[in-house]
Amino acid sequence: MREKGLNVQWIIETHVHADHLSAGHYLKEQLSGTLIIGDHITVL
After folding, report:
1. Does the pLDDT value for residue 10 go beyond 70?
2. What is the per-residue pLDDT across 18-41, written as a single tens digit (0 to 9) for each?
3. CA distance 38 to 15
4. Confidence category of residue 44, pLDDT binned at 50, 70, 90
5. DSSP state of 32
6. Largest Cα span, the chain
7. Least packed by Cβ within 10 Å: which of 5, 8, 23, 32?
8. What's the CA gap between 10 and 12, in Å, rounded?
9. What pLDDT is stored for residue 40 in this prediction?
10. How many Å apart are CA 17 and CA 23, to the nearest integer?
11. Residues in contact with 38: Cβ distance below 8 Å, sequence separation at least 6, in sequence order
12. DSSP E strands: which ranges in 1-44?
């Protein structure tokens, strides 16, 4: 992203998977931007 001169504004968590964790917080640390999570993300 940085090499291309692009700027991340939003990191959107749309759903979860029971077999792996999200990289949302890692992406936020690396690329900035605002991390948002839907109200029903805990519903499996």
Report:
1. yes
2. 777 788 889 999 998 999 988 877
3. 8
4. low
5. -
6. 37
7. 5
8. 6
9. 76
10. 12
11. 13, 14, 15
12. 10-13, 34-37
